[in-house]
Write a structure and sequence with these properties.
Blueprint: H1 3-9, H2 15-23, E1 27-29, E2 32-33, E3 47-49, E4 52-53, E5 62-67, E6 96-97, E7 106-112, H3 115-122, E8 130-136, H4 143-151, E9 154-155, E10 158-159, E11 164-167, E12 172-177, H5 184-191, E13 196-204, E14 207-208, E15 217-219, H6 222-231
Parallel strand pairs: 7-13
Antiparallel strand pairs: 1-2, 1-3, 3-4, 5-7, 5-15, 6-7, 8-12, 8-13, 9-10, 11-12, 13-14
Helix pairs in contact: 1-2
Length: 235
């Protein structure tokens, strides 16, 4: 097994973040600092990150969290702000967020120690949908704004892909995106004259937030995890 995959399976970080650890010279294999991402890890090898021993692969787990506003979507925060990982204190594994929600965006975020699954869920190639509900300003949302949101909005980093959009009242929209750029929903809505006042993610692939309370977390069932894997298996 290649070193980055080994670290991801051990719950140290996602595959991409594990590659960064190797490139930074923070990983040793049998006492040797390695920088080659192609290095294989043999059974029983001594693998360490920053001098700390990395054990064998942890049991894979995926948790759903209903993120409150003001909580950041990182494993740790240098400014002392509360993190989504702290909401799953009894996980029994080192968990990492699957992507991010802005601090002021609420709703469904996944935490896992399965780096392979996390990478697939986030990769644009697999087009795993995310569903958001936005309360917007600017008055009632008219048909022209809906058409623009559905066909693509010109932003400073290019035109967005098509989105599924429907009204849920005069000032509420449900949007389904099949990719994600930074603050994309907020920027799309602002571009058509309807700045976001409140934003919540209510779905990720086949999962829905449902009745999970704000600030609460639950571990996904085996069928739910399998449904996620299927959603991220598009070739």
């Amino acid at each position: 097994m290649r070193i980055a995959k080994y670290l991801a399976h051990a719950g140290v970080a996602s595959r991409r973040a594990a590659e960064d650890l190797v490139r930074a010279g923070r990983v040793t294999l049998d006492g040797e600092v390695i920088g080659d991402l192609g290095r294989q890890v043999a059974p029983g090898a001594d693998v360490r990150v920053d001098g700390r021993v990395v054990g064998g692969p942890e049991e894979r787990a995926v948790w759903m969290v209903n993120k409150p506003a003001g909580v950041v979507s990182t494993a740790r925060d240098t400014h002392g702000r509360p993190t989504v990982v702290e909401l799953v204190a009894d996980a029994g594994a080192r968990l990492y967020p699957v992507g991010r929600l802005d601090a002021d965006t609420t709703g469904l975020i996944l935490l896992t120690n399965d780096g392979e699954l996390a990478n697939r869920l986030l990769h644009p190639r697999y087009e795993v949908p995310r569903t958001y509900v936005a309360r917007v300003g600017g008055g009632p949302v008219r048909a022209a704004a809906l058409r623009t949101l559905r066909t693509g909005v010109e932003l400073e980093d290019g035109v967005t892909g098509p989105a599924e959009v429907r009204r849920r009242g005069d000032d509420r929209l449900e949007l389904v995106l099949h990719g994600g750029r930074k603050r994309q929903v907020r920027r799309m809505c602002a571009a058509v004259g309807h700045p976001v006042v409140e934003l919540s993610r209510v779905g990720f692939g086949p999962l829905v937030l449902g009745s999970l309370a704000v600030g609460a977390a639950r571990r996904l069932t085996a069928p739910e995890v399998e449904a996620l894997r299927t959603a991220a298996a598009k070739e």
